[in-house]
Amino acid sequence: MKKRKSIIQCSLLTTCLTLILAGVCFIQSSFWAVAEDEKKKTAQVESLKKIVKPDAEWRKILTPEQYRVVRRQGTERAFTGLYWNNKAKGIYHCVACDLPLFSSDTKYKSGTGWPSYWQPVKKEHVGEKIDRGFFSTRTEVVCNRCEGHLGHVFNDGPRPTGLRYCINSASLKFRKKTETNKTPKKAKPAQK
Ligand SMILES: [Zn+2]
User: Fold this and answer.
1) What's the 66 CA to ligand 1 centre distance in angstroms?
2) Which residues touch 73 (CB under 8 Å, ≥6 apart)?
3) Which residues form the domain of 143?
4) CATH code, domain with 101
5) Catalytic annotation on 94?
6) Which end of the chain is less congested by CB atoms within 10 angstroms, N or C?
7) Comparing 176 with 29, which gets the higher pLDDT?
8) pLDDT tens digit string along 19-43?
9) Residue 161 confidence (pLDDT)
10) For 95-99, 148-152, 180-184, which range has the lowest pLDDT when averaged over its residues?
């Protein structure tokens, strides 16, 4: 009888220990998941940490035309910029702080003479400001990291967003998609 009791006690103890162990494992794994999540969030926030520089510093970094457009809300003349007709695949970054802004995948021919996109790479990378002019109110778009002027956004774009991000080439720096992912061509066997 005593033996039976101790067997029951022993198995109860084992069950308890297993349950505790499983609980600890669960807590630990969810802790890691939360930690990973936090890491990702921090990386995102880091990439959007505001870059503030004195005006003289921007003048050094940018060409006079880039400075006029990016820091003085200027507009380049239509059909004169570097990228209005650029059809290469890649990403358009902010010319001042290098934040990725637009992809060639969302670039389209708008006929306006400025590079036009229907969506930014990430919504949080592009900020919007109300631009009240003499005759009209437009929505100005800026780089959300350095506050550099990019252009304007209008509601006459193509599907699926219906938006037209009309951007100055002078505000952008194009980085061509690298071709490293392509499978290398097989070398031809040497002819005898
Ligand atoms: Zn920027």
Assistant:
1) 12
2) 131, 140, 149
3) 55-176
4) 2.170.150.20
5) no
6) C
7) 176
8) 555 555 455 666 566 666 666 656 6
9) 98
10) 180-184
